[in-house]
Automatic annotation (TrEMBL):
It comes from the Bacteria. Residues 40-118 form the ACT domain. Transmembrane segments: none annotated. This is Amino acid-binding protein. PANTHER family: UPF0237 PROTEIN MJ1558.
Length: 118
């Protein structure tokens, strides 16, 4: 059971008042506070089937919450090859942003990630 810090002592006292109840109480302290922030990533890569699914899977595995994806296709200027472009909004712990970018860049050699704080 989890209770707020200000209610901890009241809960412990109430539990001790119950006869014939055997229990063990452990009061845990939060070791680090998660600082959620909103990140906006601009992604560019050669287009291929399944690229959005791959990106969203990596974001999920890295602890991010995908809020919004806006994607498009365009021909590369010199080669005419179909390019994938996306703007992705993610809520996640800001300290994990570098790991997320690294994981996204490992999806493919041609995937480029630019990041901005929203």
């Amino acid at each position: 059971m989890a209770v707020s810090e200000e209610n901890t002592q009241a809960l412990v006292s109430a539990l001790h008042c119950i006869d014939s109840l055997n229990f063990q109480i452990e009061i845990a302290k939060q070791t680090s506070e998660k600082v959620n922030s909103t990140l906006v990533l601009e992604l560019t890569a050669n287009d291929r089937p399944g690229i959005i699914q791959e990106i969203s899977s990596v974001i999920h595995r890295q602890g991010g919450n995908l809020i919004k994806v806006v994607s498009s296709q365009a021909s590369a200027p010199h080669t005419g090859q179909l390019m994938f472009k996306a703007k992705v909004q993610i809520a996640m712990n800001e300290t994990d942003a570098d790991e997320l970018i690294s994981a996204l860049e490992h999806i493919a050699d041609d995937l480029m990630v630019d990041i901005a704080r929203a």
